[in-house]
Design brief:
Its EC number is 1.1.1.271. With 243 residues, the chain is α/β, with parallel strands linked by helices. Helix content is 42%, strand content 10%. Helix 1 links the parallel strand 1 and strand 2. The structure holds NADPH dihydro-nicotinamide-adenine-dinucleotide phosphate and ligand F7E. The ligand C[C@H]1O[C@H](OP(=O)(O)OP(=O)(O)OC[C@H]2O[C@@H](n3cnc4c(=O)[nH]c(N)nc43)[C@H](O)[C@@H]2O)[C@@H](O)[C@@H](O)C1=O binds next to helix 3 and helix 6.
């Protein structure tokens, strides 16, 4: 690995580990990096490298020595999945992010970007949400276990920045949609769930479609390709310990 700390965009042959490259976010990042001319992406599917296993992650980093890491691998799901599998959401996410962040630091990765989520902010945070709202009030109960894991990831990046001056940054996207989304009936987010259900209703000639809840909740949505643009911007331009 070169020890020159050139900017992210300067060297299109830099080895970049995109963790979770087959998912909604990871695949959008890969498309974006290929469009920009990056030629040396390091990609491993879940079955090739289980990021919850520390010893596997350690030997992967020691062998491959990536220069940049974008951490888009996680246990992810919509409101029902989060509410049904709290133990999976907290334990799997804590393991993946702890293993990857520490191995990246220990193997001299130049910069890491961690993906959090807007659900880290309090349920009743004033809108529009400010970064300073973090940890000021209780979380939304349906996804607090996932949110607690994400907050730990953000704090881990901040701690490594403070103690080691290591360049680890975090981004907090809102509810995403786009190519390679998860269309599972129960475990997906609302946009793919409703697309699937309305499509099935249209094809099947159904008279009604069931939508969960009261219909009153509000959400912001972001196309995953716009997030990928933002992630490249952060990799190139942002350095610091605030989110
Ligand atoms: N989707 C959304 O609306 C939002 C997502 N985010 C964040 O963005 C990131 C990416 O989410 P998204 O792309 O939607 O999620 P997806 O479920 O689409 O993709 C997650 C990826 O992580 C991989 N993965 C899961 N567990 C492991 C493991 N143990 N070892 C190796 N790889 C693993 C999956 O591989 P495999 O499929 O093979 O299991 C998959 O490629 C996450 O950190 C998420 O919290 C933040 C806000 C909103
Ligand atoms: C990004 C964020 O995503 C998750 O939070 P969420 O925004 O609550 O997730 P959601 O997309 O599943 O729901 C949005 C709203 O939509 C309503 N809703 C109606 N009908 C369907 C429906 O058919 N499916 C789903 N999933 N929701 C429905 C649903 O009841 C809710 O009020 C977090 O767990 C966490 O993963 C996270 O960080």
């Amino acid at each position: 690995m070169s020890t020159d700390k050139t900017s992210f965009m300067a060297d299109k042959s830099a080895k970049i580990f995109v963790a979770g490259h087959r998912g909604l976010v990871g695949s959008a990042i890969v498309r974006k990096l290929h469009r920009l001319g990056f030629t040396n992406l390091l990609l491993r599917s879940h079955s090739d490298l289980d990021l919850t296993i520390q010893s596997h992650v350690d030997s992967f980093f020691a062998t491959e020595k990536p220069r940049f890491v974008i951490l888009a691998a996680a246990k992810v799901g919509g409101i029902h999945a989060n509410n049904t599998y709290p133990a999976d959401f907290i334990s799997i996410n804590l393991k993946i992010q702890t293993n990857v962040i520490h191995a990246a630091y220990a193997n001299n990765v130049q910069k890491l970007l961690f993906l959090g989520s807007s659900c880290i902010y309090p349920k009743h945070a004033p809108q529009p949400i400010k970064e300073s709202a973090l940890l000021t009030a209780p979380l939304e109960p349906t996804n607090e276990w996932y949110a607690v894991a994400k907050i730990a990831g953000i704090k881990m990046c901040q701690a490594y920045w403070l103690q080691y001056n290591w360049d680890a940054v975090s981004a907090m996207p809102t509810n995403l949609y786009g190519q390679n989304d998860n269309f599972d009936n129960d475990n997906s987010h609302v946009l793919p769930a409703l697309m699937r259900r309305f499509h099935a209703a249209k094809v099947g000639g159904a008279k009604e479609v069931v939508v969960w809840g009261s219909g009153r909740p509000l959400r912001e949505f972001l196309h995953v390709d716009d997030l990928a643009d933002g992630i490249v911007f952060l990799m190139e331009r942002y350095r610091g310990w605030s989110m």
